[in-house]
Amino acid sequence: MADSSGSDSQDAQRPDRIDLEAIWGRTASEMREQLSEIASPARRLLLLEKLLISRLLCPREHHSAVSLALDRFTQAGGRTRTRELARQASLSQKRFIDVFQSEVGLPPKLFHRVVRFQRVLITVHSSSPPDWTQLALDYGYFD
């Protein structure tokens, strides 16, 4: 909320702040309006929780290139190169990276590294003691 000094406009200009409307569009304004109509903080929190959960449960449509990449990256042992995914999606590699990062929040190469590391962690926690050499070979760690 803005105070007499206009802190909303100052906050909007800070590089570490992003207006929710820039991400969610009109939905953010509608949520803000619904929340402002409720006086009780407890009821406001319940509505906010309900709105956020409904947002989580609503399936998002991805660009077909992003859907392709997410499928490949999350497949067990998927070691697909970004260049190959871009070719399969009929996009330039730069455009593919831009589209993926815009929708996922990470560049495809970094996302794939995170997924690969998560698989390693799952394996490490499910086997005792882990065979580190075999894990490195299985998940493509070689240096």
Give the % helix: 55-70%
- Look at the structure and give the mean pLDDT: 83
The assigned structural class equals mainly alpha
> What fraction strand?
under 5%
Q: What distance lies between the first and last C-alpha atoms, to the nearest angstrom? A: 51 Å
What does this structure look like?
It is a single chain. The protein is mainly alpha-helical and 143 residues long. It has two domains: 7-57, no CATH class; 64-138, no CATH class. The chain is 66% helix and 0% strand. It has nine helices and no strands. The longest helix is centred in the last third of the chain and has 19 residues, at 108-126. Mean pLDDT is 83; it is low at 1-7.
Could you give a quick summary of the protein structure above?
This protein has 143 residues and is mainly α. It is built from nine helices and no strands.
Keywords summarizing the entry:
9 helices, disordered N terminus, 143 residues, 66% helix
Give the helix/strand layout.
Elements: H1 7-12, H2 20-24, H3 26-36, H4 41-57, H5 64-74, H6 82-88, H7 93-104, H8 108-126, H9 132-138
